[in-house]
TrEMBL record:
Entry GO CC: high-affinity iron permease complex
Organism lineage: Eukaryota, Fungi, Dikarya, Ascomycota, Pezizomycotina
Superkingdom field: Eukaryota
Name the UniProt record assigns to this protein: Ferroxidase
InterPro entries for the chain: Cu-oxidase-like_N, Cu-oxidase_2nd, Cu-oxidase_C, Cu-oxidase_fam, Cu_oxidase_Cu_BS, Cupredoxin, CuRO_2_Fet3-like
Keyword Metal-binding: yes
Keyword vocabulary terms for this entry: Copper, Metal-binding, Oxidoreductase, Signal
MF-aspect GO terms: copper ion binding; ferroxidase activity
Domain Plastocyanin-like as annotated: residue spans: 92-204, 214-365, 425-556
Length: 623
C-alpha cells in the first residue's frame, strides 16, 4: 500500500456516527445499501450468462428512437425560506473495499463513501474543512455551482485559493441560486481519483416533474493504486517514450461507490434518478433492464423530456431521469453500467480488470436477483435535450475564441496536454488574487496572469463563442467553471455520436460537453459572472497533464465587487508563504514583470503529496 507518511487510516465500516452539523438530514431515499460491502464475492454469485440477458429491445438507435415531449404543468408550491446549511468536515483517509480490494480513500468525518450535500434553491452552504490527511494538501470544487460574487469559494488550488495544507482549516461559504444535480470533488493534484467526491443536490419544489422518491446514482471508475504514483509515472519521460504517454487504466467500475447496490422500488410509482459520473477517466454507458429513462435535467438545466433506453455519460456529466415503475412488483430488474474503453492502452490493462458494474431495481426483496444484462453501445446525441427555459442562441458574438487540443512533449520530455500549444502550469500567486489586486493599468492584460495558465481576459457581458478543434483522436469532456455553455455545433463524432438538434430549437446547454476525437465543437456563453473560471478537460489525468485554460472574467467588475477574502483563506496562504497579491510570477511591485514565472512543470509530479518520495515510481503499479 502506498502511503509515504503513514497517515491515520480508519475503516469505513467501523464508523457509525458523523459530526456533520446540518439543519436537515440527508434524505433516506438516497441511502443505498450495497449487497456486499466487504468483498466483491457477490459479483460471482450472479449469472453473467449472455443467454439469460434481457434487453429492453430498443426499436432503433437513441438518435432516431427517442421520443421527446414537453412536461405537463405542475401546480406551484411555496418555496421554503432560505436556510444556512452548516457542514463541518474532517478530511481523512478511510479504508474501504468497494470492489473487494481494500485501499485507502479520502473520506469525510471518518466515513467513505462521502455524504451528499443537500440544499434548496436559495440556501447558503457553509463547509468548514479541516485537512487531517497528514500527507496531502486539499482543495474542494463545487462542480456546476456558479459562485456568483464568491469566486474565492470555487475551489481549484492556486486558481481561486491556496491549497489547504495538512492541519489547515478553510471555510467555503456560498449561495446556491440554482436547482439541480451537481457534485463536489477535490481540485488539486488528482486527489479526487482517490475518492474525494460526492453529490451536491439542490432541490427545486417547483421542478417540472413529480416523483414519489429520488435516488442519487453515482458512477465511477476505480483504481486499486493510489493516485500519486500513478500521476508520477503518467507524467514521466519513461511513459512518454514507452507508452506514448498513455493514461493508467482503472481496475473496475462502481455505482454509488459500491457494486450490486439495490434500489427499492414500489410498483406504480415514479422515481427520479440523479445520475452523476464522478469518475476520473472513463465515460460510461448506462441501461436499466425493461425500464426506459425519461431525461428531465442535464447538468442543472431542465430539458425537454426525452425517453431513451441508454445513456452515454462522460466524467462530470449529470443526467436526471424519471423511471416509471412497473405496475406489478413481483420481479426484480438489473441495471448495468459499462465503461467506454476506447482510451485504454491495451498493454496497460491491469491484472484485475472489470469494465462493468451491475445494480438492481428491487420490487420484491424475497425474490431472486435477476440475470445481468449486456450493453451494446447505441448512438447517443445529447443535443436533442434542449433547455426547457427555451433560452435562444446567445448573440451577436462579441468575443470569438479558438483553441486547439493537442498532446505534445515538453522541454523535459514529459507528455503534456495543450490548448493552443500551451500546457497549464500553475502560477506562483493564485490567479484570483492577482485579479483582485492588480493595478487598473495591468488588470485586463492577460500576460500578468502567466503564460502557462493559458489566460484569456473576457470583458463584462461579452458574448463568447469558443471553437475547440480537437487534434487528438480521443474525445475529451470539457468543463467550464461558473457557467453553462450552449452547444452551437459539433462535428466528428461519427455514427455513435451524431449531432442532430431539433430544427429551430434552442441550443442544448450544460457545463460539461464532450468534444469528439478528431472533431470540434462550438460553444457560447455570456461573460456575466465576474471571477476566475477555469476551462479544462474533465479527464483527471489530462488535468494533471495541463489540458486547462483560465478565463479571467470581467476583472474590472470583479475588483468593483470589493470581495472580502475570508480569514481562513488568508491563513492557509500565510502558513505556506504564498503571497495574496502579485502577478503570476509573484511580483507585486511591477505587474508587467513576469520574470521568474512558472513555465514548465516539475520533473517529478506526485499529485497533492506534501513530501514526495525521492525515487520515481518507475512504472504503473498494475494490480
Ligand atoms: Cu481529456
Amino acid at each position: 500500500m502506498y502511503n509515504n507518511l503513514n497517515p491515520v487510516i480508519v475503516s469505513s465500516s467501523s464508523v457509525v456516527s458523523s459530526t456533520t452539523t446540518t439543519s436537515s438530514s440527508v434524505s433516506s431515499a438516497s441511502l443505498i445499501v450495497p449487497t456486499s460491502s466487504s468483498s466483491g464475492a457477490s459479483v460471482s454469485t450472479i449469472s453473467t450468462s449472455s443467454s439469460a440477458s434481457t434487453t429492453s429491445s430498443p426499436a432503433s438507435s437513441s438518435a432516431t428512437g427517442v421520443v421527446c415531449s414537453s412536461p405537463a404543468a405542475q401546480a406551484a408550491v411555496a418555496t421554503p425560506a432560505p436556510a444556512r446549511k452548516n457542514y463541518v468536515w474532517s478530511i481523512g483517509w478511510v479504508n474501504a473495499a468497494p470492489d473487494g480490494f481494500q485501499r485507502p480513500f479520502v473520506g469525510i468525518n471518518g466515513q467513505w463513501p462521502n455524504p451528499a450535500i443537500n440544499a434548496n434553491v436559495g440556501d447558503t452552504i457553509i463547509i468548514t474543512v479541516t485537512n487531517n490527511l497528514g500527507n496531502e494538501s486539499t482543495a474542494i470544487h463545487f462542480h456546476g455551482i456558479r459562485q456568483t460574487n464568491t469566486s474565492y469559494a470555487d475551489g481549484p488550488s492556486m486558481v481561486t485559493q491556496c491549497p489547504i495544507q495538512p492541519g489547515g482549516t478553510f471555510v467555503y461559504e456560498f449561495v446556491v441560486n440554482q436547482y439541480g444535480t451537481y457534485w463536489y470533488h477535490a481540485h488539486i493534484g488528482g486527489q479526487y481519483i482517490d475518492g474525494f467526491r460526492g453529490p451536491l443536490i439542490i432541490k427545486d419544489v417547483n421542478a417540472p416533474y413529480k416523483v414519489a422518491t429520488e435516488y442519487v446514482m453515482t458512477i465511477s471508475d476505480l483504481y486499486h493504486s493510489e493516485a500519486p504514483p500513478l500521476i508520477n509515472y503518467y507524467q514521466s519521460v519513461d511513459n512518454a517514450n514507452n507508452n506514448n504517454g498513455a493514461e493508467p487504466v482503472p481496475n473496475s467500475l462502481l455505482i454509488n461507490e459500491a457494486q450490486n447496490v439495490q434500489f427499492p422500488m414500489v410498483a406504480g410509482q415514479k422515481y427520479l434518478f440523479r445520475i452523476i459520473n464522478v469518475g476520473a477517466f472513463t465515460p460510461v454507458y448506462l441501461q436499466f433492464d425493461q425500464h426506459s429513462m425519461t431525461v428531465v435535467e442535464i447538468d442543472g438545466v431542465y430539458t425537454s423530456q426525452c425517453t431513451m433506453d441508454q445513456l452515454f455519460i462522460t466524467p462530470a456529466q449529470r443526467y436526471s431521469v424519471i423511471i416509471q415503475a412497473k405496475t406489478t412488483g413481483t420481479q426484480n430488474f438489473a441495471i448495468k453500467a459499462s465503461m467506454s474503453t476506447g482510451m485504454f492502452n491495451p498493454t496497460l490493462i491491469p491484472a484485475t480488470f472489470n469494465t462493468e458494474v451491475s445494480a438492481f431495481l428491487v420490487y420484491n426483496s424475497a425474490a431472486a436477483l435477476p440475470a445481468l444484462i449486456t450493453i451494446t453501445p447505441q448512438a447517443f446525441d445529447d443535443s436533442i435535450l434542449t433547455p426547457l427555459d427555451a433560452t435562444p442562441e446567445f448573440g451577436p458574438v462579441t468575443s470569438p475564441q479558438f483553441m486547439t487540443i493537442d498532446f505534445t512533449t515538453n522541454a523535459n520530455g514529459q507528455r503534456r496536454g495543450t490548448l493552443n500549444d500551451i500546457d497549464y502550469v500553475q502560477p506562483i500567486v493564485p490567479t484570483l488574487y492577482t485579479a483582485m489586486n492588480a493595478p487598473a493599468a495591468n488588470l485586463n492584460d492577460p500576460t500578468i496572469y502567466g503564460t502557462n495558465t493559458n489566460p484569456i481576459v473576457l470583458p463584462y457581458n461579452a458574448v463568447v463563442e469558443l471553437t475547440l478543434d480537437n487534434h487528438d483522436v480521443n474525445g475529451h469532456p470539457f468543463h467550464l467553471h461558473g457557467h453553462n455553455m450552449q452547444l452551437i455545433s459539433r462535428s466528428g463524432g461519427g455514427p455513435l455520436f451524431p449531432f442532430n438538434p431539433p430544427a429551430g430549437a434552442p441550443p442544448m446547454r450544460r457545463d460539461t460537453i464532450q468534444v469528439p476525437g478528431s472533431g470540434s465543437v462550438t460553444l457560447r456563453w455570456i461573460a456575466n459572472n465576474p471571477g476566475i473560471n477555469l476551462f479544462h478537460c474533465h479527464l483527471e489525468w489530462h488535468v494533471e497533464a495541463g489540458l486547462t485554460a483560465t478565463f479571467i472574467e470581467a476583472p474590472t467588475q470583479l475588483q468593483a465587487l470589493k470581495l472580502y477574502l475570508p480569514i481562513s483563506h488568508k491563513n492557509v496562504c500565510a502558513n505556506q508563504s504564498i503571497a495574496l497579491k502579485g502577478n503570476a510570477a509573484g511580483n507585486a511591485v511591477n505587474y508587467a514583470d513576469l520574470s521568474g514565472q512558472n513555465t514548465v512543470v516539475a520533473k517529478e509530479l506526485w499529485g497533492s503529496l506534501v513530501n514526495p518520495p525521492s525515487t520515481p515510481a518507475g512504472s504503473y503499479p498494475l494490480t
